[in-house]
């Protein structure tokens, strides 16, 4: 076995632990090497953009749909995490909370906690002063929850706040946006990362709103911004000026710009039409009419709109789905007659809790008069029992029978495209899920079906879960969270053995099903974002085949037909290379609000003409929102030329590969120097180590590690951390080293072959800069006997060679001292130059902000001047009016002129105040940049390389 010295071990330990500037590829390399994602250059480029300035208050990442903004944000988050900046808040739509938690856990190895009413209230009850004050876990919560807990959120010194689907805040400048206003107040002064594919949808004021969330000192007030950038004649000049102001905060990449790095497959839509039986149609009409009643005693009045929406979804799903819910309504009314208030059970609908989370305002509370109307309650009870009896009598569902032929056709289509015989079937009801399990099991699919829903308490899932836990008991795959582990077990069973996964919306969150390319929307959500999320489980990065999407449609239901047309033709969800465009998805604002709009049409329109008219109106509104003029403005303001992007991404790709390769080499070298052995046949990224008699194979390539069953080696590995800490504690006195290049066939270095018997002296020092952001730099000082220049890369290479200590170090020379001093001075100058760049950027931003404010003051003067001119014109043309009236008019003019004089006098004072405020902000920046540096000597050695 090759021998190595403590000096080499210390050298690579320093490389692995060095705090490099976070805005460099090398700074990100440690983070990137330890995550389970395929890093595309546009994602690294976006992460570096978000990290680029330590003084920045944040950034807006606005890549098109499907380019992985979650990965970009994850890299930024992971970088903060590695720097021990662990006060991190994630604000996301309620439906995406679980997905984010899974992504952070599985891809970035970062634990997180979803904070919502139940565990928040429990924490408060247990005596916690602020439940948001959580250590070593990312806090995830919904928009509404964060805004309602404004004071708690504000009181935490967050290191980073990530806001997903941030277009929800683009109208924050409007007083009507209560949620946005609360969040802006709560997050003021915190570093924020906003994610949205649709930063500009309807109006240029939206950019003002989003940027004001990031940083309040970019533009002046909303009125000045409107005058400067909205109400203008020369749009080209406006767009150029706005682009310059925004380029420091906003970054956008398009899908067409990254096709060299990301391979996209197609979506192919298949429509499966069906006609319900007479009994099914009767039941549908009965329940629909019931839901339109003026008074409903069975529904909690404060949630009537929401529950009506859910009941309509269950009604459209299957007779089995609505049947038990009708029974729950019956039990609630029976309780009322006995003076008992029973909870309405809606657990059949998996995402009901999320809908509640999204609901800002209740519909009002029930009056005492309603509760006292016993005759009304009895009449409603009789009605519901009639519907329940009918639902129980229905055993044949036309839609279900059509699934059998749809699945057969879907499999044939998928297999003809090269896909596997696997399908994921989505329904919105757990009871429909059970019905489909029985239906498919009785028709040739027995033993091939797995389930995913919010609980997975069925026998099949429990058996799969138990077997999975036994199989993975020793490999670290078990997280301890039943929900997460159950999902992992079911997905693994589906991937390796089963043919069909029947899932509720729980299956659309946080799982990757690239191995499946057939999706069946048995129940079609009205929320386009939900559908995109479903299809995105399979049609995503890593999918090798075209994805077939089968949609069920009740052709006899006019509203269902129009919803499908809207989703297919307007939103373009089911066909094409990319699915729905960001312009379209962004036009719907919040998906739940859009669902409520659709539900109101079902609720209020009974006749076909009414239904058609309302959908026509909705479609017209959407067309107005998808604004071509705004699309052109977005391209001009937020997008860069393809050639410019291509050149930047190419450079980023090369630098990323180089940085990852370098860090991986250091990792491998360090492990081998601790006694690990390369795995045969020789593989530079795989090696084995025997610990307490157990041989463990490590791999720094995560995909290869998963294929071969190796341990994916990350910097946080406990064994590696133990060795790194030990390496730093071992003294490294000045010695002479002999490096064996001749007898090291695995380390052939061309440079050393052309420079044989190289001798010299080497000093390694560390420059530690402490400021607003701390960073470290290694200073290499090498002097050779024959004056051969040795750069940093070559030092890294020869330190990999087997070596031995052969004596004492040669005395330090004056030339070495000079070289070291020059290296330190050069690095200090680079740090100062970077800080200067950051300072000038912030000063330019603040100066522009101050000029905006002054422009606003001048605008007020101009407006009062216009008013005076107009009133004087009216006065001069009013000679035929009575004297008293003219005197009043003149007095009004004089009063305005006095006001203008006062404003002119105060103008300079107010401008001075603006300048003083600007200077105070710049002083804050200067104080942040007034860092100190010190040098720590690590080792000195003389060497010979033979």
From TrEMBL:
Give the source's domain of life in one word: Bacteria
CDD domains per record: DEXDc_RapA, SF2_C_SNF
What are the TM regions of this chain, as residue ranges? none
Any one GO molecular-function label of the UniProt entry: helicase activity
Q: Where is the Helicase ATP-binding domain?
A: 50-217
Give one Pfam family: Helicase_C
- Sorted UniProt keywords: ATP-binding, Coiled coil, Helicase, Hydrolase, Methyltransferase, Nucleotide-binding, Transferase
Q: Which PANTHER family match?
A: DNA ANNEALING HELICASE AND ENDONUCLEASE ZRANB3 FAMILY MEMBER (PTHR45766), SWI_SNF-RELATED MATRIX-ASSOCIATED ACTIN-DEPENDENT REGULATOR OF CHROMATIN SUBFAMILY A-LIKE PROTEIN 1 (PTHR45766:SF6)
Q: What is this protein called?
A: Adenine-specific DNA-methyltransferase
From what organism does this protein derive? Anaerobacterium chartisolvens
